């Protein structure tokens, strides 16, 4: 019997004993390899400020109330999911400036010679929010949980079956997690440094999981836990007293505020008014309308509110127009190419966004060597648009100028999730009309918009997908995720050639092979034009009342401005959340000054520490 097979038996036997209420140590554990080199990191610079103070409540907002508090299963992949996952720690984390690993739930780690497995020494202090210790069995249960059909999460079922091998328990504080295939060592942690799942909470019973746990507040390992829910109105997180990780080197002086309250304000303009009145502590100003026009007046001139423009160097989400190829019109590649040439993105940037944004070209922008910089987004060109629409048989126009074919008009809807994007789409609508295409704007709230796209009930969806330290393609472009609801293949791409490349990319053992295959995949995505890139901003801009304090510099290379309340480990394994703090004395001073009309010096910070010159 080979050692790998033996380790699988040990893990499964251990899980059986746990289910019976017995100790997994009743079975002799497998032996650790003799040649392991245990690694840790206490030499990278800390990025939080020693001046940080604890206390206060951060007041933020949501444009829509989440459809669930689950982080997997139907309706879970909305914006609020980031806050839930931001308190679900992983075994190791990635430094937001150096990208080196540092301890999180594990204190040390090691690699197998064949680059399939990482070994971890768990921190014996690690605790769930209900006080129970984090155990090796909690990591083993993650595989059982994510592989279960009961969670109704096809992507996770497939990923944890096809990409993750086994969790092996060696003793009460030592485990290994294996990949189903060898991976480049610098990428292995992104696959196997998994988060634990609290078996004691779910009691090993996942029947009726979706309904039973739709509003459950599961225990987590991070600094905050949901403490109050007012359905449809607000959700409040509370900082844990004596959080087990608060004294770890890279977690000190972080997660400083006592509470974080998200209030539902469904109108962004109303939210802005709340911010100006001091009822919200921070407000994103990345949109040019806010930075250049709205962020003016007394509260800025008198220095009550500060402005920060912070450049970052990080992988970008795939911002674009997602065309549903199950729509008979959009199934035709010539129509998709016509749409690409009919999109006047430069006019949107200049007319609506003041030229502040940059055109995105490749599906994998900002991933260094993985990004194919020879790919260029198709320019606005009505002659080429006309050529491709004609090739698709849409050569005639009706009396209103819209193309017709077989008695049908070339009319398509675009689904989107915020009023902020309406002006952009109005510009595109007028340009599409010139090309003979009717664009129907279908605005929904953020959660409903994304749900519609997940259910494949869209013609086109305007939004962004992405996340991860390295480019990912399987969830968004592999045919296994096409023609079915609750997957991220929003374009319903179903291409055998592309499937083979994606599978080869997932299986590639060297970085060189991964880079080569990633570029081939990006080229096909570009050629098929089912995802059409739009615009991105390689920076973050924010306004904040002067009682919000930040470290120096006020952000990190990967994470951007230091305004995130939590770690967002569903996007990257980078950990840099909770770096700001509230100075209660300055808050009192500011509110008194505001009442009396006393002025402070206006503050606008433009930080170019991590600015990258575009190609």
Can you characterise this structure?
With 615 residues, the protein is α+β, with helices and mostly antiparallel strands. It contains 19 helices and 28 strands. The N and C termini lie far apart (55 Å).
Secondary structure elements and pairings:
Layout: H1 3-19, E1 57-62, H2 81-85, E2 92-94, E3 101-103, E4 106-111, E5 117-122, H3 136-147, H4 154-162, E6 164-171, E7 174-179, H5 185-192, H6 199-202, H7 209-212, E8 224-230, E9 234-239, E10 259-264, H8 268-276, E11 282-284, H9 288-294, H10 298-301, E12 305-311, E13 318-323, H11 333-342, H12 345-351, E14 358-359, H13 382-391, E15 396-397, E16 403-405, E17 408-409, E18 411-416, H14 422-434, E19 438-443, H15 446-454, E20 460-465, H16 474-477, H17 496-507, H18 511-528, E21 531-533, E22 535-536, E23 539-545, E24 548-549, E25 555-556, E26 560-561, E27 581-582, H19 584-596, E28 604-607
Helix pairs in contact: 11-13, 12-14, 17-18
């Amino acid at each position: 019997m080979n050692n790998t097979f033996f380790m699988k038996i040990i893990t499964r036997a251990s899980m059986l004993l746990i289910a019976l209420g017995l100790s997994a140590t009743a079975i002799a554990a497998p032996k650790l390899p003799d040649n392991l080199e245990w690694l840790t990191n206490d030499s990278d610079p800390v990025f939080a400020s020693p001046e940080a103070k604890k206390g206060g409540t951060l007041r933020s907002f949501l444009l829509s109330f989440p459809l669930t508090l689950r982080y997997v299963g139907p309706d879970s992949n909305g914006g609020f999911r980031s806050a839930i996952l931001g308190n679900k720690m992983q075994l190791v984390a990635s430094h937001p400036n150096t990208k080196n690993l540092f301890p999180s739930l594990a204190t040390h780690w090691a690699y197998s010679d064949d680059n399939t497995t990482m070994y971890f020494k768990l921190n014996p202090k690690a605790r769930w929010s209900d006080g129970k210790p984090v155990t090796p069995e909690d990591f083993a249960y993650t595989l059982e949980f994510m592989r279960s059909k009961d969670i109704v999460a096809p992507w996770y079922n497939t990923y944890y079956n096809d990409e993750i091998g086994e969790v092996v328990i060696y003793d009460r504080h030592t485990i290994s997690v294996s990949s189903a295939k060898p991976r480049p060592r610098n990428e292995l942690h992104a696959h196997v440094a998994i988060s634990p799942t609290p078996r004691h909470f779910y009691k090993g019973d996942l029947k009726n999981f979706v309904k039973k746990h739709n509003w459950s507040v599961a225990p987590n390992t991070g600094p905050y836990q949901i403490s109050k829910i007012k359905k449809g109105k607000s959700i409040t997180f509370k900082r844990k007293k004596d959080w087990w990780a608060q004294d770890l080197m890279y977690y000190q002086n972080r997660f400083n505020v006592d509470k974080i309250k998200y209030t539902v304000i469904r109108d962004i303009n109303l939210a802005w008014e709340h911010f100006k009145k001091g009822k919200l502590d921070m407000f994103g100003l990345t949109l040019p309308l806010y930075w250049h026009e709205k962020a003016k007046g007394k509260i800025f001139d008198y220095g009550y509110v500060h402005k920060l423009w912070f450049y970052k160097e990080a992988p970008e989400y795939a911002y674009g127009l997602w065309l549903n190829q199950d729509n008979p019109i959009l199934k035709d590649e010539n129509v998709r190419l016509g749409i690409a040439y009919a999109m006047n993105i430069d006019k949107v940037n200049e007319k609506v966004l003041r030229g502040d944004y940059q055109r995105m070209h490749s599906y994998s922008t900002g991933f260094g060597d993985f990004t194919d910089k020879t790919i260029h987004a198709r320019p606005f060109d009505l002659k080429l648009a006309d050529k491709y629409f004609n090739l698709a048989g849409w050569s005639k126009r009706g009396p209103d100028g819209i193309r017709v074919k077989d008695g049908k008009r070339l009319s398509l809807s675009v689904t989107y999730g915020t009023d902020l994007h309406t002006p952009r789409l109005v510009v595109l609508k007028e340009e599409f009309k010139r090309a003979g295409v009717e664009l129907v704007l279908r605005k929904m709230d953020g959660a409903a918009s994304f749900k519609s796209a997940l259910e494949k009930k869209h013609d086109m969806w305007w939004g962004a997908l992405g996340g991860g330290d390295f480019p990912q393609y399987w969830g968004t472009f592999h045919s296994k995720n096409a023609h079915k609801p609750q997957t991220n293949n929003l374009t319903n791409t179903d291409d055998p050639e592309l499937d083979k490349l994606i599978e080869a990319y997932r299986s590639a053992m060297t970085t060189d092979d991964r880079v080569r295959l990633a570029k081939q995949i990006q080229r096909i995505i570009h050629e098929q034009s089912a995802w059409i890139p739009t615009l991105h901003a390689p920076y973050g801009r924010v306004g904040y009342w002067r009682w919000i304090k930040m470290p120096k510099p006020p952000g990190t290379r990967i994470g951007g401005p230091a305004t995130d309340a939590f770690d967002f480990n569903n996007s990257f394994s980078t950990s840099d959340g909770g770096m700001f703090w509230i100075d209660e004395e300055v808050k009192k001073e500011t509110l008194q000054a505001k009442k009396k009309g006393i002025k402070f010096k206006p503050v606008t910070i433009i930080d170019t520490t991590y600015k990258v010159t575009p190609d």
